[in-house]
Amino acid sequence: xxxxxxxxxxxxxxxxxxxxxxxxxxxxxxxxxxxxxxxxxxxxxxxxxxxxxxxxxxxxxxxxxxxxxxxxxxxxxxxxxxxxxxxxxxxxxxxxxxxxx
Length: 101
Fold this sequence. Notes:
The protein is mainly beta.
């Protein structure tokens, strides 16, 4: 399946309740509606690490927030037990096939 870059990971954190959350932003998303971004993300994403390794993750949930500068910040919850650890600087990709249906 073809993928397209969603954003670069700026922040990764783990919560006891929700597990791993990856956050990032991409200027190309700023003019899109949150519902459109959620549709783009779909049920799975692919994350490419700094060393080039690619892994597919199921999306538990996502949240899009607006910064005071008018930018959209996207947080994707991957759930508990995510391994190996994801680091800032990794790239998040979404699958294009979900948009063509």
